[in-house]
Amino acid sequence: MECNVGLVEQKARVAAGLAMIGVGAYYNSKPLALLGLVPIVTGMVRWCPINAAIGYNGCENEQEMNRYRK
């Protein structure tokens, strides 16, 4: 699995997932809390099947920037 979730997107996914879990816990909604795990997992592994299906790669800019830094 090649990286297709950029660093900024990774942080946003983890924050959104934590927010969904928090809202689910507050309203006692287990499905919402469980759904919050999806963005956390995709953010932590930095690979998303939806991004892969539509051909989006958020890591391309990071790889180009790292190439010029060396």
From TrEMBL:
Originating organism: Pontibacter cellulosilyticus
Pfam families: YgaP-like_TM
All residue ranges annotated as the Inner membrane protein YgaP-like transmembrane domain in the record: 1-60
Protein name: DUF2892 domain-containing protein
